[in-house]
Amino acid sequence: MELNPSAIVGIGVIGAVTFYLGFHSSRLANTTPDFLVARRIVRSRRNAAAISGEYLSAASFLGIAGLILKDGVDSLWYAVGFTAGYLALLLFVAAPLRRSGAYTLPDFVAARLGSVALRRLATVFVVVISVLYLVPQLQGAGLTLSTVMPVPAWVGSAVVVLLVTVNAFGGGMRSITIVQAFQYWVKLVALALPTFVLIVVFVGGHPVAASLSADSPPVFAHTTSVAIPAAVEVHEAAPVRVQAYGLVNGFQNNGPLLMNPGIPYKIGAHATLVFPAGSPTPTPSDSPDTNAAWLRPQSGGVSALFSTYSLIVALFLGTMGLPHVLVRFYTNPNGRAARRTTLHVLLLLGLFYLFPTMLGALSRLYTPELLVTGQTDAAILLLPGKLVGGMPGEILGAVIVAGAFAAFLSTSSGLLVSIAGVVSTEVFRGRVRDFRWATVIAALVPLTLALLLPEADISLSVGLSFALAASTFCPVLVIGIWWRRLTWVGAAAGMVVGGGLVLTALVLNIISEYTGAWAPWPVVQPALITVPAAFATVFLVSLCTQDRLPPDVSRILLRLHAPDPLGFIKDRDVARFGPAAPPSPVDGRHHR
Amino acid sequence: MSKHADGPDGPPADDAQRPATAARKPRRKRVVLNDSRNPVTVVRVITELEEQTSVGEALVRNLVRAQLKMALWLALLTTVVFGSLPLAFYLSPRFGESSVFGVRLPWLILGVLPFPVLFAIGLLYNRLAERHEKDFVNMVES
Asked: Of A74, A207, A368, A493, which one's alpha carbon is 20 to 30 angstroms from that of A441?
């Protein structure tokens, strides 16, 4: 698409600062505990900013506004769920998880249940969840870069992977903590500032083509030419005469086309549609068509209701099972600090999520063409240019693009470090050198997948990784922390059942995407079924295998729950890899 | 390459040369009066907890039960508050179309209100959990 020099400057600045901060703090990192858990000395305020910075991914920054543009008020559940997940984490997991003294998620299950087999299984799921989460981040980076620069999508993905790998390679957890804390504030400002400006412009009387409560679809304000990047299926609410160039319903069309209501139109890739000013926008077949339906909650019938509940279950319970979030909790000094960190995170996330809602609603008014192209994730990237013309619009757009890049960078680096931490300690021997090799491997696999797999809505694919986390690690963590009769067999069975069901749904979903989107709601959003199934399996199998109880279960539970001043925390990374060396005098050189 | 490769005990100290230097200059020693990370507590009760005597075990069980009960109550509260919303919107379209100050009520309820509510519940939990733990520590130390 068109070249936006200020946006490229914005990306450059974010990349340079990220690299500088990471490089600067990598001088302090020289031991395995540095690389894995930042020596467990991160204070709760900075840790909360780092957790929020890492957590606010492309799905939050771009995806929520895009889904609001398409599906309306029901998409707000994403913002609510992304935040509420931390309340569940605070209530059931935060402090005991830190007190376990573990340094990765597999290490926690091994500490609690003492099983090598379970440890391996947990390793597999950590890698699967993280990769599943990384792929949409990289695809989002590709999309973002290609909206401001005429480059193919893989360039953006590769740039992000390169930057993130270099940082994680240099200092692991120690160096990405400060990078992520910084990037939370970048993202907040990059979303808040344009929101204020655009709201002022909007309230100041910017012309609106159709009211948001009108009983009609959004309307094109000007004659608009829309290039379709990949095949889409849309329908019209009223007859419209457009100019169509390309494949429509399987026939080549090179001129006027009358689009009638009630008929699905399959528009082929690389087609171009030209809509006259004032014509209603065609909408995707599975979304509300009129603005009135868009404004109303739960307008999609019973299956949409179940789908909403399923999403709520996945998001509320999925956060506590995300490996890259949990690994940050190990960096707290003690259990009480872990709780305070979580509370801070609730504050920071609540602040952030006010803004995507407003931008999503504005984009329904000003960027309706994205409904036709299906690239709704680009909504907030294009919005400033539509509302504010000329140089100011370009600069606002650049600010948002820079924020989006911060989102890709911070989430990807968190995921990369969590994969690398697990792989280096479970597969290799956990030396610093192993961590570096694991980083490179962990970067290349998702990059390959991001280039091979088809692009879906970022929030939807991220939603599936939440469902996977909620059906595997959430039951094991919650039950393991609070119930002394859990056995490793029960935990393993629960993870296999929950994880297996979600992965089956994932595969069915991909097949259905290719063969006409026939999948019912339990396939698209399976958590409402898989999470209870996983919990039930863990309980039942544990009760049947009580002879496998770990012998020192009372002592382990004591360690998880005893208040910090009693001093029961024993850090397992220190026990395995030796104590962190005292900070070496900083003289500007790397100590490795 | 990396320092931890030397193992937990650190590099072997060069004790052979130390007495000679120590004779001239007394070695600097670190005196710890009160390390806030590992406060000194009553050793007897802690050993009781570690040794898993019946008293120690009952104490811990009580603490865990109290914390779990509180967490479950607050989780139930959150579930009822948020879980009832989609059903309410579904059953009552009038509720879903009502508006306050020109803004549709569902947009306010889902777009703004959840965040302070979630934070308030979290704050309440934190207060209560820390109080439970403080009571426990006081009981153990007295």
From this structure: A493
